[in-house]
Structures are given as C-alpha cells and as structure tokens.
Amino acid sequence: MVRQGLATYFELQDDFEVVGEAADGRQAVEMTRTLAPDVVLMDLMMPGLDGLSALRELKGTGAKVIMLTSFLDLEKAMACIEEGALGFLTKDIEPADLVDAIRAVHRGEPRLHPEVMKRLMVRTAQPHQPSKRDLLTPRELDVLRALAHGLTNREIAERLVISETTVKTHISSILSKLQLTDRTQAALWAVREGLVDD
C-alpha cells in the first residue's frame, strides 16, 4: 500500500516517471538492471534480500539510490552511505520533501536524515591522532629521558635503580614502538618531543 501510494504521488509530478515497482530486494536488483532507472527508492527492510544487500548488488548499475526506513538505525545508515547510497530518509518524511530529495539525488546531491548527517560529520571530522608518546610506558619515558641526556645503560640503571638488562629491554621496546633504529635517533626524537631540556 505504501509503495502504491508513493508511485501514484510520483506520477503526479511532471518530471517523474515510475518505470517499475519491486516487491522485494531480489526483484529490486533485477528490475534495476533491466529498466536502468535514474533513481531507486528502496526500503531498508525487505523480504528475501534486505535493502543493504540489494544496495551492494546495485553497484555499477549507475542508479542513484535513496534508502527509506521506518526506524532510524544510524549504524545501518552509515553502512548504506559507505556502500554508495546518496540518500537515507525515514518514512515519516513529507511527500513533497521526498520528491525534492529524489530530485536532489538525481542531480547527484546527497539527501540525508539530520541525525545521519550529524553522525557523518562526526565520523569524517579529522580524527584525533594519538602521539607516539602515548605508546610508551612511564618507565620507558624515564629511560628515554635519561638516554637523551647522554647516559650509558649502566648510568641509567643506577639512576632508575633497575638492572642494565632491564634498561636494554626498555630501550629495545622504545626503538620498536617509535620505529627507530638506534639510540641517537631515540635521543633526537625525545628532544623534538620536548621530553628533555635543550
């Protein structure tokens, strides 16, 4: 009933032509491949093949896809966008707004539910890049500072009250974590990071 109601409403638009209606996901994929529509309006929840799976199978057909759903699931929305959907809207949208969204998607402009847009903006924002310093333990930082001050393994061991073997283990771990090859590089890195005074 919903599908038929939408089709009837779309036919009233001068610039719309409904070229086909599908009852399930599998039929939607087959009809899209056969009829080559410009835009596919597809339910997220369908019998047989769900909307996300159908969307994946529509890659390469050239059709621009708008996903329509009764309940907003942000994770599924993001998955649909990652799979190429240009639209993700809920069924409580006003018919006129849905028509506008279809026109926009036809032009290649995405139309997303506001909550989906918020999630997308957060996800695509520049992620926090953790400092390599965060990879080091407090004791490794102590060893690195001492190393950068030019202390030998024995002197580091005496200052930190640990064995020389433990110092060597810490240094190996530091070099590995920072992807450095020798003590000199480690010392220079420590100075650049402000771990020691000039």
UniProtKB/TrEMBL annotation:
One of the protein's GO biological processes: phosphorelay signal transduction system
Entry keyword set: DNA-binding, Phosphoprotein, Transcription, Transcription regulation
Modified residues (4-aspartylphosphate): 43
Stretches assigned to the HTH luxR-type domain: 129-194
Pfam families with a match to the protein in the record: GerE, Response_reg
Gene Ontology molecular-function annotations: DNA binding
Highest taxon of source: Bacteria
Database matches in CDD domains: LuxR_C_like (cd06170), REC_NarL-like (cd17535)
Domain Response regulatory: 1-106
Known function: May play the central regulatory role in sporulation. It may be an element of the effector pathway responsible for the activation of sporulation genes in response to nutritional stress. Spo0A may act in concert with spo0H (a sigma factor) to control the expression of some genes that are critical to the sporulation process.
Protein's name in the database: Stage 0 sporulation protein A homolog
